[in-house]
Every structure is written in C-alpha cells, then in structure tokens.
Amino acid sequence: MKPRVSVVIPFYNCPYIEQALQSAISQSWQPYEIIVVDDGSTLHAERITPYLPYIHYLGKANGGTASALNHGIAHATGDYVVWLSSDDMFYRDKINNQVLFMEQNRLLISYTNFNYINGNSQAMELNAAAVFPNQLEYLRCFLYGNPINGCTVMFKREIFGAIGMFDEALPYTHDYDLWYRAILNGYAPVMLNQSLTAYRRHEGMGTLRHYDVIMAEAAATSARYHAPLSALIASMGG
C-alpha cells in the first residue's frame, strides 16, 4: 500500500500562503491530506479561501509555530508528516523523492538540501545546506548550531511517540531542540542531498526580525544538550 503523507502548514499573517499551498497541491506524489493550522491570524486569511476544498483548515488561538505544528501533527493521519512554512515552497518531487528515500533506508526522520529564494520567488542561493563528510562531523555541528532546515524534514509519524512533540516553550528553537532529542534517542535525521524545498528570505521573516533573541535561545538549547551529545560523540570515537 502506498504510504500516506500529511503536509502540515502553520499559518500566521503570511502573504505567501497561496504559493505554499499551490506547491503542496501540485506534488507529483499527492499528499493524503494538507493541514493548514491558522495560529490566530488577523491578516491574509482570505488568501486561503480558494483552497478550502483541498485542505483541512484548523483554527486556533495564537500560540506560536511549535503550538501550530503540534496541533497539526495531532490531527494528522498519514504515515509520514512534512512541515511546510507558509512562506516557503516545495518543489514538485519533494514528497516523492523523500518518501522513497525514507522507505528504502527504513528511516524515521530525514531532511534534504534546499535553495534560498527571495520575496519574488527568485533563486538566490542553490544547495544551501551544509554537507558533512561523516557522521561524527555532522553530530559535532549540533554542538555549535542547527544544520537542519526544519521545512526540509520528513517524519514517520510514529517518531513523535518515541521522542515527543515540539517544545512549545521555545518560540524559535523548537526544531533544534527536537533534532537533539531525535539524535539522543538513536534517530539522528539522515540527509537526502537533493534541494527539494525553496526557503524564502524576506524582510518580514522572524529569523531576521528576532535574530538576537533567536541566537540567545539557540545558545541555551545547545547548552542544555551539550553534555549528553558530547558523551555520544565520545562513545563513537570522536
């Protein structure tokens, strides 16, 4: 039986939502369901209206991206779950290629390379993700930063029962925190080195507007897991 894929799109006042939705609907491997979680938006919700026949629309009070992701995942029924930010886009074969990679390698979590695009959807940088020569170098990177773009990740839905959901107390580094928990539970995300997501950099994105706060939160997250991850690396001969 063909695996079913749930696409979860957290949405909050984003003018690019139509492009995100169109990219999900146009996949060569059709999603089983597209779940849009409106996290208390006051702007741009009308852009979703033409797509209502094709999606599951869930409204909730504003609680942040982690809260919206958890709400969508809790309602997902697919075998796999992918996260798509409302200002980003999937390339047509994103789901197809990543599901095949997951199935062939029996993975519970994977991520991919990606391209940067600007506010006009023009490519700015291709294949922007770091590529590591070996597993030890990959794991060491987590001691200093987050090498994984969350919107490239695909999860086997069952993994959340093993490692928990996104930490809603972390407004910006809930993804970084989850990768740590995956690694320490023996489920390190595995890279498919294909650029399957277009990641948009624009003036309104939170990564730019809250940079200093994000860096402080990332440092605290890294410090929390530094000792157990260092011990794991040492046990591998690193």
TrEMBL record:
Q: Which InterPro entries match?
A: Glyco_trans_2-like, Glycosyltransf_2, Nucleotide-diphossugar_trans
Indicate the family of this protein: Belongs to the glycosyltransferase 2 family.
Name of this protein:
Glycosyltransferase involved in cell wall biosynthesis
> Which Pfam families did the record assign?
Glycos_transf_2
Tell me where in this chain the Glycosyltransferase 2-like domain is found: 6-161
